[in-house]
Amino acid sequence: MAPLKLGMVGGGQGAFIGAVHRIAARLDGCFDLVAGAFASDPARAHASAAELGVAPDRSYADYADMAVAEAARADGIVAVAIVTPNHLHGPIAEAFLAQGIHVICDKPMTATLAQAQSLAKVAAASDAQFFLTHNYTGYPMIRQARQMIAEGMLGDLRMVEAQYLQDWLAAPADADNKQAAWRTDPAQAGGGAIGDIGTHAYNLACFTTGLTGQALSATLTTHVPGRAVDDDARVTVDFPGGIHGHIWASQVAVGHENSLTLAIYGRAGGLRWAQEHPNQLWFTKLGQPPQLITRGSSASHPAANAVTRIPAGHPEGYLEAFATLYREAAAAISGAPRDTDALLGIADGLAGMKFIDACQRSSRQNGARIEL
What we know:
CATH architecture of the largest domain: 2-Layer Sandwich
Helix content: 25-40%
CATH superfamily of the largest domain: Dihydrodipicolinate Reductase, domain 2
Strand order of the largest sheet: 13-12-11-10-6-9-8-7-14
Shape: globular
Largest sheet: 9 strands, mixed
CATH class of the largest domain: Alpha Beta
Number of domains: 2
Distance between the termini: 41 Å
């Protein structure tokens, strides 16, 4: 299909995640970036647009003006990517959904549960679709794990363990570190480790198992003096059917760079996956030795093969996983036939915000059990 016209809000000069989204959007030739409001400062927004090859008349200083102007153009954008700090996700998404423009939004969906609930109402009234980019759901071996669990290869599930450990905030951040500045500001981020990476761990646990938490107990801790958000989160989750889950998210775990791991155990077998070795999935049947399943191998299931681009043995990971989500969003927008229900949307975003909100309330109540 022809590339869809894409706009972007945020992601200008000095931004990290905006560049990731732009690479992902063009990797499979599904989108063409033609418009943007790349920064809140007009001068930096227009300078960013010029660097990205966006025409001056489609470089905007305000996202609300962009939504109205692009909706009125015969060649206007079909979708917009939102790559701003969390507190802006909701208002921006609402502005574009109200104009009938599809939204591809970085996680978490918003900074607060109230913002998420407001966005859900606007999305329900719009003909446009909303897509949430929890990028780790796009990894082939995660799709493999999801299919194996759905086919009952682990038997009745018993336990789910998800950890996301980093150390980049183990000490006070430099004043000029933009990524740290907004991620440690409760007004912009809404939460610390629990929102930034804890939502990834929880989402991955739910995505692969098909489960949604019923209740949780959480302890959120701030280890760095003066920090206004949590930097370590320990969460116990009750899933349906007596299945127990544990989430540990930390940005002060010294020695860990980007250690996202997932382990799922059932009556008949177990699965283990690590993001730093994304092309490998360990599967163990009860009473048998562990089996290493690699991406693109003869043991790969159709769900994994459908999102595999290059031959086995060649690294495929973070950027390609993001690109998978963009490719699947493009197919959904275009009405193309799809053989996957893996796309995340408003319901998933709400689930993530309810998780964050419940963790924060539980921690304030000394780990009290909170219904989800």
